């Protein structure tokens, strides 16, 4: 008798709630009744906290693959869109307040090219003293964004024109494997996870990802889904491409040191060379082309740069602080579902 395997799941399960706001949004997605949160309830949420960031992730995911058991028609549900707008307003207001002191574009871009001599980021920690269990935790947390790769950033393409649009698409062509599915960077990241004994299914580990991880991911969707934030998205994209190559080099070295194997190393090896080229393209053509067409967006580009760096620093701080104490950087799940491979060696 031939056993036919079940079809691969294309949409992840709905993550568990982390507070009253995310509980109400989750309940609506799963077909339950009850009132959705309003401005008063959302104003009480910490803008960078677990409840708001998970609720925003639940809303944003409707524009990507959605969730298992959630009707696709809810992507444009008016009530959920109204809640998403309130969540985004709370998040964006906090970011604009915390990033209010910014240099001009040239100074902001120049700062991204300079690495501090005594940096303390995640890649530096992992290459110097990271253990296999910490590399696996990093892979799990980064999977929230990396398994989407450039998807959130491509929302900006219809909002650009000329040199900026052409250059953005040239970079995206590389990210999506230059026309070859097996070379798509999201697929290479899934291979990295599988090589470390992790489940590479899209959305598999969201329940283990803290607010810092979700906020960095939500930022991309916030910028990408709003035409008025196209300048901020370009600033965000500049940070990703300019800072990626040095970090990728360290992470590839850390994986080699741990013996993770070629399949795990390939994702970062690919980014060392590709993003060194992308750095020049994004500065001169994407940012330069945008500001040539729309010079009034310069302050929005710097906002995107500052907000991205702020949230990246919060993400790095959570990981390095926990790991320096020998503790896990993952959230404790509410349902006990942790892969054995994620436990400390």
Task: Give a summary of the structure in a few sentences.
This protein has helices at about 20-30, 40-45, 50-60, 80-100, 105-110, 120-130, 130-145, 160-175, 185-195, 210-225, 230-260, 260-295, 300-325. With about 350 residues, it is mostly helical. Helix 6 packs parallel to helix 11 (about 230-260), helix 9 (about 185-195) runs antiparallel to helix 12 and helix 11 runs parallel beside helix 13 (about 300-325).
The largest pleated sheet is described as: none
Number of strands: 0
Could you report the average pLDDT, rounded to the nearest whole number? 91
Helix content class: 55-70%
| % residues in beta strands | under 5%
Instruction: State the secondary-structure class.
Output: mainly alpha
Number of helical regions: 13
| Oligomeric form | single chain
Shape: globular
Terminal CA distance: 40 Å
Low-confidence stretches: 1-7
* Gyration radius over CA: 20 Å
| Order of secondary-structure elements | HHHHHHHHHHHHH
How would you describe this protein?
By secondary structure, this protein is mainly alpha-helical. 59% of the residues lie in helices and 0% in strands. The protein has helices at 20-29, 39-43, 50-60, 78-98, 105-112, 122-129, 132-146, 162-175, 185-195, 211-224, 230-258, 262-293, 298-324. Helix 10 (211-224) runs antiparallel to helix 13. The radius of gyration is 20 Å and the shape is globular.
């Amino acid at each position: 008798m031939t056993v036919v395997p079940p079809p691969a799941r294309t949409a992840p399960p709905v993550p568990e709630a982390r507070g009253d706001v995310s509980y109400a949004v989750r309940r609506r997605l799963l077909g339950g009744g009850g009132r959705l949160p309003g401005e008063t309830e959302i104003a009480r949420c910490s803008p960078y906290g677990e409840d708001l960031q998970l609720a925003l992730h639940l809303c944003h995911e409707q524009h990507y693959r959605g969730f298992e058991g959630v009707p696709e028609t809810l992507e444009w549900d008016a009530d959920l869109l109204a809640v998403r707008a309130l969540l985004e307003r709370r998040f964006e207001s906090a970011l604009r307040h915390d990033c209010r002191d910014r240099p001009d574009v040239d100074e902001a871009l120049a700062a991204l090219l300079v690495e501090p001599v005594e940096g303390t980021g995640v890649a530096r920690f992992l290459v110097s003293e990271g253990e296999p269990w910490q590399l696996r935790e990093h892979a799990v947390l980064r999977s929230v964004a990396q398994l989407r790769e450039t998807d959130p950033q491509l929302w900006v393409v219809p909002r650009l024109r000329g040199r900026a649009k052409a250059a953005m698409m040239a970079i995206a062509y590389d990210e999506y494997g230059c026309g070859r599915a097996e070379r798509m960077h999201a697929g290479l990241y899934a291979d990295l996870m599988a090589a470390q004994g992790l489940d590479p299914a899209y959305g598999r580990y969201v329940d283990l990802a803290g607010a810092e991880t979700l906020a960095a991911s939500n930022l991309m969707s916030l910028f990408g889904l709003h035409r008025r934030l196209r300048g901020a998205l370009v600033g965000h994209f500049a940070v990703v491409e300019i800072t990626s190559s040095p970090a990728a080099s360290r992470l590839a070295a850390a994986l080699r040191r741990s013996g993770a194997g070629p399949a795990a190393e390939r994702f970062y090896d690919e980014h060392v060379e590709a993003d060194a080229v992308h750095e020049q393209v994004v500065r001169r053509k994407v940012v330069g082309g945008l500001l040539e067409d729309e010079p009034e967006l310069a302050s929005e580009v710097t906002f995107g740069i500052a907000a991205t760096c702020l949230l990246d620093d919060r993400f790095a701080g959570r990981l390095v602080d926990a790991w320096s104490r020998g503790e896990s950087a993952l959230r404790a799940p509410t349902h006990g579902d942790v892969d054995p491979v994620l436990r400390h060696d």
